Amino acid sequence: MTLKLVLPKGRINTKVLKLLSDCGIELIGDERNYRPKVYGFDLEVKLLKSQNIPSLVEMGQHDIGFAGLDWIKERRCNVEVLKNLGYDPVKIVTCIPEDWDWEEMKKRKLIVASEYKNVSTDYLNNLGVEYQLLRSYGATEVFPPEDADMIIDNTSTGTTIRANRLKIVDTVMESSTQFIANSQVLKDPGKRQLVEDLLTLMQAVINGRERVLLEMNCTNDQINAIVELLPSMRYPTVSRLYQDKGFAVKAAVKKSEIRDLIPRLLEAGATDILETPIRKAL
């Protein structure tokens, strides 16, 4: 049984491919190949623009895929979100010329430019303003002030917005890369198992990226103090050293805790400390 996977071309593709590679799934093909060969998992892969992926997964043209939450909402797609990967986070924001007054603007009819027709319509209706929506096809930030009063667009840093003398006055939504599935596919026991196996592999890689394996030695008198300091996924692993000359201790520790933890372990008497990357953790 083969799963049909659709991958995004462009910006979010790099991190998704790295995640799959770390899962042991390799895609072979050059950048112009929209149907790469796959090794390491039973997948049939096609590359498409992120905007098209949610609709095609909903229709059942593909079983699973990766897409931004913004395009899932924009296409109003009924798909199963299996995992928020958090890759390439962006905000969908409302922007106006930097020297205009937002509160005054809301009192009159506005011309709004955006690539996001449905997201913008929902937002503007909830805002309760009169508006005319212009559908843009890229370079939305160049519309104000001559051709639009405001824009609704995505941004990660705000640099392009500021460069065009605009300011952010509201956040419509936040978006990042999602792992999604067709809802009917999950009702097929065989395909559901494959999806769950792939999700397990991805979660193992994500867990491994967040942690390192910390190993150290200590004397018999120091073991309790060392163990009490160590956070771990469950409990640290403790074993006797040769000739009962102390203990070897190891634990999977979050990377964010290492900087503060190592000096405390040294103070408690830990020696021979080793830090090792973890490829997968469950």
From TrEMBL:
Record flagged with keyword Iron-sulfur: no
Entry keyword set: Amino-acid biosynthesis, ATP-binding, Cytoplasm, Glycosyltransferase, Histidine biosynthesis, Magnesium, Metal-binding, Nucleotide-binding, Transferase
E.C. number(s) listed in UniProt: 2.4.2.17
ATP phosphoribosyltransferase catalytic domain ranges (all copies): 49-203
Magnesium listed as a keyword: yes
EC category name: transferase
Record's function text: Catalyzes the condensation of ATP and 5-phosphoribose 1-diphosphate to form N'-(5'-phosphoribosyl)-ATP (PR-ATP). Has a crucial role in the pathway because the rate of histidine biosynthesis seems to be controlled primarily by regulation of HisG enzymatic activity.
Pathway the protein takes part in: Amino-acid biosynthesis; L-histidine biosynthesis; L-histidine from 5-phospho-alpha-D-ribose 1-diphosphate: step 1/9
Domain Histidine biosynthesis HisG C-terminal span(s) in chain numbering: 209-280
GO molecular function, one term: ATP phosphoribosyltransferase activity
Reactions this protein catalyses: 1-(5-phospho-beta-D-ribosyl)-ATP + diphosphate = 5-phospho-alpha-D-ribose 1-diphosphate + ATP
Subcellular location per the Swiss-Prot or TrEMBL entry: Cytoplasm
Protein name according to UniProt: ATP phosphoribosyltransferase
